[in-house]
Amino acid sequence: MPKKSMEILTESMFYVLMALNHGPKCGIDIAQFVENRTDRRVKLGPATLYTVLAKFEKEKYIREIAVEGRKRTYEITGKGAQSYREELNRLKQCVLDAEGGG
Fold first, then answer.
1. pTM for this one?
2. What residues are paired with 76 via a beta bridge?
3. Tag placement on the chain: N or C end, fewer CB within 10 Å?
């Protein structure tokens, strides 16, 4: 049976929620947070980032809280924070399984 589209987050989705879990940010701030947090291992291009943001906004995982010209600032919602925690726990369990401790 196929998984629902938001049941397991992609790496990009996970890092976007991680960034917003640390406070409201605009797109550029999110991309910089992710690059810094991953030591540049994960880079979010504009197409990926804004596709994820649009999907999250539609699904009510984030909300737009400010607009200054073309700059839009987002914050995570309760639904988005819950999804982030669930995915974080799932990934922790994957690591435990891989290390033989799960």
1. 0.90
2. 62
3. N
